[in-house]
Amino acid sequence: MLSSNLLAVVESAVADTASGNWQKPLVMFISNILALLVLSRVIWHPHVGPKMPLPFASLFNNLSVPAFLACMSAGHLLGTFLILTLSVDKYI
């Protein structure tokens, strides 16, 4: 059985992270672009598979679809970590 303290913490965390403001989507957007720029040069085989039709393909290393999805997944993990970390002290 869950204690009432745990339920109170979960309820406040959900209320804090679900509030609508402009900083959280901005953090997520920046972390996704950063992951796309950095990880596109680190992935071992970024050109295997069909190419992703990105604007400025040379800037993003002319990625394939699987490499793009991997970069976006890592960017979302990074963004979620940043949002939850920064919202603990109410920076965002």
Explain the layout of strands and helices:
Elements: H1 4-18, H2 23-39, H3 65-88
Helix pairs in contact: 2-3
- Portion of residues within helices: 55-70%
What integer is the average pLDDT?
Answer: 80
Query: How many β-strands, per DSSP?
Result: 0
Low-confidence stretches: none
What is the ordering of alpha helices and beta strands?
A: HHH
Shape: elongated
Q: Tell me the β content.
A: under 5%
Question: Mind explaining what this structure looks like?
Answer:
- It is a single chain.
- The chain is an all-alpha fold and 92 residues long.
- Helices cover 61% and strands 0% of the residues.
- It has helices at residues 4-18, 23-39, 65-88.
- Helix 2 (23-39) packs across helix 3.
Concise summary:
The protein is an all-alpha fold and 92 residues long. The chain is 61% helix and 0% strand.
Give structural attributes.
92 residues, elongated, mainly alpha
